[in-house]
Design goal:
78% helix, 8 helices, globular, 212 residues, mainly alpha
């Protein structure tokens, strides 16, 4: 991983950066910015040391790639929601139908404990795997590739992936905190710039992994 080039990549071209930040501000239109991130990731995956920013063109495909990226995010979010609904529903069902016996109360407490433990675990899994899904999609722009669990596991359980994910997460968090005083624009700057850097690092790892 080339951390220096990954961190400097968003700032190579002020006009391209400004357009990405601007488009990130508006709902629906921000799918174009997501698509541009996918295009930038694709470039790193296909060409070694390809840190140049791509052109803002082919707007239709940018929108479609952004829509695909949004669907990937929604899919991982739904996983968390389904776990909460399933375990929460089981807990409520057992409380409503069960008689107030010691065993039923104990079972309800166990279910509640499992819910409390499972939700953070599944939430972490979704946050951890989502970037890998995005990078997998960006390789060939195939949505099904984003959900190849075996491939995602092989990549995301590597120490290099964890390092890049951790650094990217810290960068996104720090940038968001530092720029939060700028209404709307601060979040857009932090999101676009930090995501570009984090995805560049992860794309380098994925590219090196496929060449092994």
């Amino acid at each position: 991983m080339d951390f220096e080039k990954a961190f400097m990549r968003p700032f190579q071209d002020g006009k391209k950066l400004a357009l990405g930040i601007l488009l990130s501000l508006f709902p629906i239109i921000n799918l174009l910015a997501l698509g541009y991130l996918a295009k930038s990731t694709h470039l790193v995956l296909k060409k070694r040391k390809a840190f140049a920013l791509p052109e803002w063109d082919d707007w239709g495909n940018l929108f479609l790639h952004g829509l695909a990226a949004a669907l990937i995010g929604i899919a991982w979010s739904l996983l968390v929601v389904l776990v909460i609904v399933a375990m929460g529903g089981t807990l409520i069902f057992s409380l409503l139908l069960g008689r107030a016996t010691l065993s039923s109360v104990f079972a309800a407490l166990v279910n509640a404990g499992l819910l409390v433990a499972a939700v953070p675990a599944v939430l972490f899994l979704a946050v951890y795997m989502l970037p890998a899904s995005f990078v997998e999609y960006a390789r060939e722009y195939r949505l099904r590739d984003a959900f190849r669990i075996k491939t995602l596991a092989r990549i995301s359980f590597r120490k290099e992936y964890f390092a890049a994910w951790f650094v990217g997460g810290i960068y996104i968090t720090a940038a968001s905190l530092m720029l939060r005083w700028i209404p709307l624009l601060g979040a857009s700057v932090a999101s676009f710039v930090a995501s570009m850097t984090a995805l560049t690092l992860l794309a380098e790892i994925r590219r090196d992994f496929q060449s092994e």
